[in-house]
Amino acid sequence: MRATVMYAAGDVRVEEVPDPVLTAPTDAVIRVTHACVCGSDLHPYHDLPDTPGGRRMGHEAIGVVEEVGSAVTTLSVGDTVIVPFAWSDGTCAFCRDGITTSCVHGGFFDGAPSATQAEKLLVPQADGTAVVVPAGTDEALMPSLLTLSDVYLTGHHAAHQGGVGPGKTVTVIGDGAVGLSAVLASAQLGAETIILMGRHTDRTDLGREFGATHVVAARGEEGIAEVLEITGGEGSHVVLEAVGHLPAYEQAYGVVRPGGTISRVGVPQYEDAPVGFASLFGKNATLTGGPATVRAYLEAVLPQVLDGTIDPGRVFDRELPLADIAEGYRLMDQRQALKVLIRP
Amino acid sequence: MRATVMYAAGDVRVEEVPDPVLTAPTDAVIRVTHACVCGSDLHPYHDLPDTPGGRRMGHEAIGVVEEVGSAVTTLSVGDTVIVPFAWSDGTCAFCRDGITTSCVHGGFFDGAPSATQAEKLLVPQADGTAVVVPAGTDEALMPSLLTLSDVYLTGHHAAHQGGVGPGKTVTVIGDGAVGLSAVLASAQLGAETIILMGRHTDRTDLGREFGATHVVAARGEEGIAEVLEITGGEGSHVVLEAVGHLPAYEQAYGVVRPGGTISRVGVPQYEDAPVGFASLFGKNATLTGGPATVRAYLEAVLPQVLDGTIDPGRVFDRELPLADIAEGYRLMDQRQALKVLIRP
Prior knowledge:
The structure is a homodimer.
Chain A: E1 2-8, E2 11-16, E3 28-36, H1 42-47, E4 55-56, E5 61-68, E6 80-83, E7 86-87, H2 93-96, E8 107-108, E9 120-123, H3 126-129, E10 131-133, H4 142-146, H5 151-162, E11 169-173, H6 177-188, E12 193-197, H7 201-210, E13 214-216, H8 220-230, E14 236-241, H9 246-255, E15 256-264, E16 272-274, E17 286-289, H10 294-306, E18 318-321, H11 325-333, E19 340-343
Parallel strand pairs in A: 11-12, 11-14, 12-13, 14-15, 15-17, 18-19
Antiparallel strand pairs in A: 1-2, 1-4, 3-5, 3-9, 3-19, 5-6, 6-10, 7-8
Helix pairs in contact in A: 5-6, 6-7, 8-9
Family (chains A, B): Belongs to the zinc-containing alcohol dehydrogenase family.
Organism (chains A, B): Klenkia terrae
Keywords (chains A, B): Metal-binding, Oxidoreductase, Zinc
């Protein structure tokens, strides 16, 4: 089969690789029908060291089940399934807590031997991981359903962990697909005011359609001052940080209200950051977030997509065949595309 | 009157200073009957640079109202009152949220012109700040009531912000008076397992009486391993960090369970710390806490002391007159006393 392999920063190739095979009775193999490129794929696209063996890419997928291991009971050959970016058994102590990304038998497709920007995918812990899409679902819904493998539910995770709800003022930092998803999720959760910090008008326009009540293009101290002004000098109850770079985090503690919450879902490209009296502690700010526990939300949000309540697939503004995926990376890196759908 | 003044690390003096006078109609002046030395007073005791003008010390007090400004309505001359370590108006947006330490008219007695280790104290925003102790309250309850100005309610804040409740496993880092208070508060809030990390047997013995189910004397990697073993390898739902130094924070993220919460009340003696994928983010851990919003809890917890449900004053193991307060600092610094009560 063909799969996407990255060999170094900027070096993305589609190559022939062996088909995945079942290795455990809990595995399934799917034929990938929809995949995509994630903002987080751009991190290795910028800084992956030379990797002679290559790194398989992609962690978002919808596909059709081709084969299941002997222990798999909830999936049948021919089912269309959504596969979250992390696999999980659904039964361990952490899965029962809803922290499926910390499953004791779990893992991330990113960097795994089988990843999703490919014609086929090996799904470990298939019963716990994959969620079946009802037979006969309209093909037009597939882009929105694909966002339930990562991007929309990552925005939802940010909002959920941050305690977004009615009456709350929410600031979303970042106008990428995750930030826009966080806007949409915040609106769904009833936020009263949603301030989107971003500087790309085509993106912030979609953010307004998703529910943003204000857009702040300025960054740094100037951006912080604008958010404080919008909030009557009080700051934002909840800040959703959907970038992952330190300046975004610094903006977050600059705009958070005393007693408020910063919820991060942009994978931090730093380890150390300010958390002392001058940043978080002094104003009793809470820092939360992490890899989205997509699987824990998926079944509850699926009906909202199926019945048209939300249309998170609008974040896809380009579609390419697998053969052209390197162009998809380039378009997203150059900000000529917001998010690229791939059809293997 | 006499007041405690620190001029440099280790240089604590009791000196004659002018009596405080009302400066605003919302002020009150109290005669301090009970004060104490706080673990956080030891930070300047270790590192205060030479300060020719001196720094007034103390932020915990019970006293008798001597004089009130014309706008004060809830206090009368002769009332015995508890004064939290921060003053607050009780009416601003942040006070209404319960974040009284961020009051827009608030401040901290620490380093203020009038502080509590003195014969008299100027209390700004007296109506919002001071809480009246019912007339006729037994003198024997005063030490426990004094802990409601800071130490017990700081432990309570840690536990409350951390989400301690029935069924939860809680690890308390630090066997100082705040850590022991956090143990007692966690027991009150119904924690199932309370692991106290501390190495001073006399203190951890009191911790067991306050409700600790386990004591771990080891620190660092060894201490983390012991806590993980006690929790069946899963980690602690809540970690209460009552020290303020970076190694305690590192222990905290080492023992927190995926999806769990670290609640800090030890004033951080650092600004930057690990918060990335390897520490907090990867396991969806939440970091919360800050200066205790003592005033927001005081009225709810007061009856528990008055009716004998809790006896947090047991953290006081020495009592000294104001004249000997320098000895009180020395005893606490040398760990010969847990917490020293001062009678001006």
